[in-house]
Amino acid sequence: MNSRAKGVRGELQVAHLFKSFGYQAERGCQHDGMTGHADVVGVPHLWLEVKRNEQLNVHEAMNQADRDNIGYFQRTGEDLLSVVIHRKNNQTWKCTMRLIDFLAMCGCTPFSTDVPVDGLVTMEWEEWIKVYMAYENERSAG
Fold it and tell me: Each residue of 57-83: pLDDT tens digit?
């Protein structure tokens, strides 16, 4: 029960972080009371998985976010970028996403589609939100 409450608090904290930047974020289960939504919804173009865990396997968390995101895409046709937002006790929030998605968010493309761009990128929240907001502003303007 304690870990569930910790998870709920983490989701609320992340929703509040996005709200402080003007996004209409809320916990996914608050959205409609059903499963099948990201942990935090209301942030354009993102599938958000929130983890509050001292021993986080970030690759496993990213795979979970991708699996859930793919299921959502299959139901709705909405193509979102998977992001894991995570932190340990007494540390700051970090954001992890697939490198290929991060490069796309930054407006970069791989030199060759023959060579897969693999791996994850993790950034502190304060830096990641700047990149995301620039991406979102660009998408909204175009």
Answer: 999 999 999 999 999 999 999 999 999
Question: pLDDT above 90 covers what percent of the chain?
Answer: 70
In three-state form (DSSP H/G/I as H, E/B as E, the rest C), the secondary structure along the chain is CHHHHHHHHHHHHHHHHHHCCCCCCEEHHHHHCCCCCCCEECCCCEEEEEEECCCCCHHHHHHHHHHHHHHHHHHHCCCCEEEEEEECCCCCCEEEEEHHHHHHHCCCCCCCCCCCCCCEEEEEHHHHHHHHHHHHHHHHHC
Question: What is the CATH number for 58?
Answer: 3.40.1350.10
- Per the structure, the count of domains in the chain is 1
> Looking at the predicted structure, is the pLDDT value of residue 113 above 80?
no
Task: Supply 44's token pair.
Answer: 């354009």
Residue 125 domain boundaries: 2-141
